[in-house]
Design goal:
By secondary structure, this protein is mostly beta strands. It has a domain of 159 residues. The chain is 4% helix and 58% strand. It is built from two helices and 32 strands. It has a 24-stranded antiparallel barrel. Strands 7-8 form a two-stranded antiparallel sheet. A two-stranded antiparallel ribbon has the order 9-10.
């Protein structure tokens, strides 16, 4: 009850701040997010957790006045939702981030919990994702200096957050960016060279039961170096990055190994046509904040899946999981838009995507071959027929390896989706989805549907169901409504949720199956 009372006090602060956002010549802004579930027993998927109530809550306040800004965020798990047990046990109320910042035209000084990314995130990214329960911010100091448009220099130092506390390690990082295009006066093109250095220091003697020297790790320092080049001209863009990583021990590894990464991207945009191609190679690139923990949030760098991120239920049943031990592959994306010059409500959008990934080394599999990890071919056609009617058709072919390449075995799925939106008038609209997954393997066939009726600008009512017509014969239903008023949105729903991966930005967390009543509230000011 103590923690609940403190959080209610925080809500009172939000109410006061919302009523009076001007303070001391500056401005206060903030946000509140709460996600609460009441779990119920369900004979189809199992018993509810012992504590039937879970609630993840986030309250953030920021103050800005000219070049000065500051802010805090408090989190309250009352208790933590099922599937996020690594974040906290029981009830937890704590200060998750705080900062003060001074920024002028060329210089920035930041003290507190740092959220930042170097390059493409292959060597360092500190960020918060509440859907994944991830916050690996760096508590410390960061300085940035810009020499006009020519050179940018950044440095930071601190200890990373690990769940509700901080890791027993220290991170140093530096980043340099040089704009050659500005230096030599190339006005019609972009050309820059960049580089990063990251060091993680951690004592190897914190746990007497662990002898890191036996697995080849003898130094408390782990270094990573990154070199990058960026080029852009007349719709053409080229980006490349190479990373060298010192000897490190991954969570599931038996031996400490050096690592490396290669990333290449080419993009072209001309009129209504867009092309993007990406290649990435990872070799022992999983980098933990702490060698003494193996949870989802224990990560120093950012290695998302470079595949299409789906929003449709059946297309997202089995998303790709990156093989950080070693993988090579990439994806190609093609988009074309056909517009009606006389009627902006009539157009076609065509989208084709293909991705393919293999194990990097033959030793990663029992077959002694490079095993296929993932293959995905999909296309969708969006047609705006008139002001009131829009349709989308999606087809997705997915092939995935359930053993992460260890065995020569893949499952194949074919997903078909039809999506129709009809606007009755300016305020009322109906969206309907029909989905089918056809497969001879794993759980075999699925069928799904969704109906959503919206009364702009406040109300929305929805119902969805997903049924396995193959091996399990289970259906996963959900129904509810949402209400939006200015910057506040409330959603209440009830349903059965399938066990599987929840993904955000190509990073995933496993979520167990549950049935329950779900309340989500978000508000900002």
């Amino acid at each position: 009850m103590k923690h609940l009372a403190l959080f209610i006090a925080g809500l009172f602060v939000v109410g006061v701040a919302s009523a009076q956002t001007q303070f001391g010549g500056g401005q206060i802004s903030g946000s509140l997010e709460t996600n609460s579930i009441y779990y119920v027993n369900d004979s189809k998927i199992g018993e509810s957790p012992e504590d039937r109530f879970g609630s993840n809550n986030y309250l953030k306040l920021d103050y800005s006045n000219g070049r000065f800004s500051a802010g805090v965020q408090t989190n309250a798990f009352l208790p933590v939702l099922q599937g996020y047990e690594d974040l906290a046990s029981g009830h937890k109320f704590y200060l998750s981030s705080k900062y003060v910042q001074w920024q002028d035209e060329n210089f920035e000084l930041y003290v507190g919990d740092i959220f930042d990314q170097l390059g493409n995130g292959l060597v360092f990214r500190s960020f918060e994702d509440r859907q994944l329960g991830l916050n690996n911010s760096l508590e410390g100091i960061r300085g940035v200096y810009n020499f006009g448009n020519y050179v940018s220099l950044k440095g930071m130092y601190g200890r990373p957050r690990l769940y509700t506390d901080y890791a027993d390690s220290w991170v140093r990082a530096a980043d340099l960016s040089v704009s050659l295009a500005d230096i030599i006066g190339m006005e019609s093109a972009l050309l820059s060279l960049e580089g990063s250095y990251v060091n993680r220091y951690q004592s190897l003697s914190l746990d007497p039961m662990m002898d890191f020297s036996q697995v080849g790790l003898t130094s408390p320092n782990m270094d990573m170096y990154s070199g990058r080049v960026n080029f852009g001209w007349n719709g053409l863009s080229l980006r490349g990055e190479y990373v060298s990583k010192g000897k490190d021990l991954a969570a599931a590894a038996q031996q400490a190994e050096r690592g490396s990464a290669i990333l290449g991207e080419v993009g072209y945009n001309y009129g209504n046509f867009t092309f993007m191609g990406t290649y990435r190679q990872l070799d022992n690139m999983a980098t933990r904040l702490s060698l003494y923990d193996a949870g989802v949030g224990n990560t120093l760098n950012y290695l998302p899946a470079l595949t299409r991120q789906y929003t449709y239920m059946l297309a997202n049943l089995n998303p790709y999981q990156v093989n950080t031990e070693g993988e090579m592959g990439g994806q190609v994306d093609l988009c074309y838009s056909l517009r009606n010059e006389d009627d902006r409500y009539r157009y076609w959008n065509f989208h084709v995507n293909y991705s393919l990934f293999y194990t990097l080394r033959k030793s990663q599999s029992v077959t002694g071959n490079h095993e296929r990890l993932w293959q995905d071919f999909n296309f969708d056609i969006e047609r705006q027929w008139a002001k009131k009617l829009k349709t989308i058709f999606l087809y997705s072919f997915q092939e995935w390896n359930p053993t992460h390449g260890y065995k020569h075995r893949t499952y194949v799925s074919n997903v078909f989706v039809g999506d129709v939106t009809y606007k009755f008038d300016r305020k009322k609209s109906l969206r309907v989805e029909a989905q089918y997954l056809w497969s001879h393997e794993y759980e075999r066939d699925w069928v799904a549907g969704l109906a959503e009726f919206s009364f702009a600008p406040h109300w929305s009512v929805f119902f969805s169901d997903m049924y396995n017509n193959g091996t399990t014969k289970k259906n996963y239903y959900s129904g509810g409504f949402s209400y939006t008023q200015n910057r506040t949105r409330v959603q209440l729903s009830y349903g059965r949720n399938r066990a599987g991966y929840i993904c955000s930005g190509g990073v995933c967390r496993f979520s167990p199956a549950y049935t329950g009543l779900n309340l989500v509230l978000t508000s900002s000011f």
